[in-house]
């Protein structure tokens, strides 16, 4: 089974590692790292780490996965290119504005949280 997981993965923390490992248990894992411009557009601010730093950190954390940078213009391009059997979302993650589950060729499931009171990225200091 081909599993697709999207995320920013800024300042990789145990919560990120948890969802990466959980996703990896489901099958052949492909991780799509959000481009800096995409993060700016969706979250209103740039990530602390540049996209290549984030990609490299995730690659080191899950060497069994294929870790790629996303498409800054077309959120669904990785879905079309990699034809996943399953798309996984983090416990607090949403599909991008304008993308609906019906637009996707496979089921979308949500992964559980891992101590969100401690490891949620927005709770971590930015420096």
List descriptors:
127 residues; alpha/beta; Rossmann fold; 5-stranded parallel beta sheet
Write the layout of secondary structure elements.
Blueprint: E1 2-7, H1 14-24, E2 28-33, H2 36-43, H3 51-61, E3 66-69, H4 77-82, E4 86-89, E5 108-110, H5 116-119
Parallel strand pairs: 1-2, 1-4, 2-3, 4-5
Write a concise synopsis of the structure shown.
31% of the residues lie in helices and 18% in strands. It is of the alpha/beta class.
Walk me through what this model shows:
The protein is of the alpha/beta class and 127 residues long. The chain has 5 helices and 5 strands. It has a 5-stranded parallel β-sheet with strand order 3-2-1-4-5. The chain starts with a strand and ends in an 8-residue tail after the last helix. The mean pLDDT is 90.
Q: Tell me the CATH architecture.
A: 3-Layer(aba) Sandwich
Order of strands across the main sheet: 3-2-1-4-5
| Count of separate DSSP helical elements | 5
- Structural category is alpha/beta
Give, in order, the helices and strands.
EHEHHEHEEH
Mean pLDDT: 90
Low-confidence stretches: none
CATH topology: Rossmann fold
Largest sheet: 5 strands, parallel
Helix content: 25-40%
Distance between the termini: 39 Å
């Amino acid at each position: 089974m081909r599993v697709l997981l999207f995320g920013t993965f800024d300042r990789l923390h145990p919560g990120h590692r948890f969802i990466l490992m959980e996703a990896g248990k489901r099958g052949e894992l492909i991780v799509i790292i959000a481009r800096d411009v995409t993060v700016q557009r969706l979250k209103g601010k740039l990530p602390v780490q540049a996209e290549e730093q984030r990609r490299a950190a995730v690659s080191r954390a899950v060497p069994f996965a294929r870790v790629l940078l996303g498409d800054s213009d077309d959120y669904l391009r990785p879905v079309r290119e990699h034809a996943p059997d399953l798309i996984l979302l983090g416990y607090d993650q949403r599909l991008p504005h304008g993308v609906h589950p019906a637009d996707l060729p496979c089921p979308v499931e949500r992964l559980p949280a891992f101590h969100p009171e401690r490891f949620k990225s927005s709770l971590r200091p930015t420096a």
